[in-house]
Automatic annotation (TrEMBL):
UniProt xrefs under CDD domains: GDP_MD_SDR_e (cd05260)
Source species taxonomy: Bacteria, Bacillati, Bacillota, Bacilli, Bacillales
Reactions catalysed according to its record: GDP-alpha-D-mannose = GDP-4-dehydro-alpha-D-rhamnose + H2O
Gene3D superfamilies: NAD(P)-binding Rossmann-like Domain (3.40.50.720), UDP-galactose 4-epimerase, domain 1 (3.90.25.10)
Record's keyword annotation contains NADP: yes
GO molecular function: GDP-mannose 4,6-dehydratase activity; NADP+ binding
Keywords for the protein's UniProt record, in alphabetical order: Lyase, NADP
Domain named NAD(P)-binding: residues: 5-309
Protein name: GDP-mannose 4,6-dehydratase
Entry keyword Lyase: yes
Organism: Paenibacillus sacheonensis
GO biological process, one term: 'de novo' GDP-L-fucose biosynthetic process
SUPFAM superfamilies per record: NAD(P)-binding Rossmann-fold domains
Amino acid sequence: MKTALITGVTGQDGSYLAELLLDKGYKVFGLRRRTSTPNYENVIRIKDKIHWLSGDLNDLASLIEAVRISNPDEVYNLAAQSFVAASWPQPIATAQMTALAVTNMLEAVRIVKPDARFYQASSSEMFGKVVETPQKETTPFYPRSPYGVAKVYGHWITVNYRESFNMFACSGILFNHESPRRGLEFVTRKVTDAVARIKLGVQNEIRMGNLDALRDWGFAGDYVKAMWLMLQQDEPDDFVISTGEMHSVRELLEVAFSYVNLNYKDYVVIDSQFVRPAEVELLLGDCTKAKETLGWKLDVDFKQLIHMMVDEDLKRVKSEMRYYELMGI
Ligand code: NDP
Ligand code: GDR
């Protein structure tokens, strides 16, 4: 039985990855930071199957202890401050959690279990300003947010530990991937949640930022398979994971609202608070290397993804409404 340690296991990707590894027969350890309100929503179905470890990315001692206790064959470093918009008001916390913390995790592995295989969650946000399209492993980085800058650090320190200490360290440069477990502040989930609420009569409008931004959106359940595949290769390497298709935020609104027979133009209000100080106008990935080397492929396309998210939000909002009715709220 193989053993994996996942940081960020309570997040979107961590929960799908934990399910995938449990299905493959892994013993899964999940690192969880202490929060005043426990947040097990994404892992509710597998909570009892995960071996929980208490730790924080900024507390090296806790990471060393997590690696010592779990003695992992594979480490997936998914934890981060992952919301780009929050990285302007919280640039230092973002640098600590999204950049420096990667060194903490690599050090913990290097000191305690240097032969463990290591996955770093790098991001298409590192490409930022358009230098080349589509973007691939060799495209130069030009990050446009404190988050993007922090991810560039995390990416290069992972490459550096591979080259300096001969560690099996891989970096997955993943383009946007979404699911019904996506945080409510990210644009896809914000839209599908609003569509459900508007359809059910508990919301009147949705306030949005830049509708012209273009993104390469895939399904998180497909993307975690690529993370696992990267750690099964003979040699460590870095891979772009993407759909190779791009859609605008406006198109996302169109697809989500029309699915429930509504016109987004009747509900969208542009609000400058959601416009970013510097924008990444366009992301489009070329994942030929991953397809050829890893044999990775997509199962869910853009429309299926957005429809799946609207369906799940409709179910959730309906059950919330039933609960409030029962409670007389
Ligand atoms: P989420 O925001 O859903 O999850 C982030 C996770 O990190 C949560 O479990 C969170 O815990 C944990 N975390 C944050 N800070 C700390 C800390 N100080 N100590 C311990 N744990 C912490 O992100 P995703 O699942 O969407 O993304 C996973 C990773 O992939 C991130 O690194 C993200 O930047 C990167 N990425 C994501 C992409 C995407 O489109 N989803 C694309 C490219 C990269 P808690 O529940 O307590 O908040
Ligand atoms: P992103 O995702 O910044 O690409 O980072 P997000 O869904 O937040 O934004 C995508 C695009 O939509 C535009 N936008 C809005 N975004 C939000 N959140 N809210 C709005 O109201 C809104 N209106 C327009 C944004 O300006 C942007 O252009 C995600 C995260 O998962 C990162 O962790 C990851 O690294 C990258 O994807 C790849």
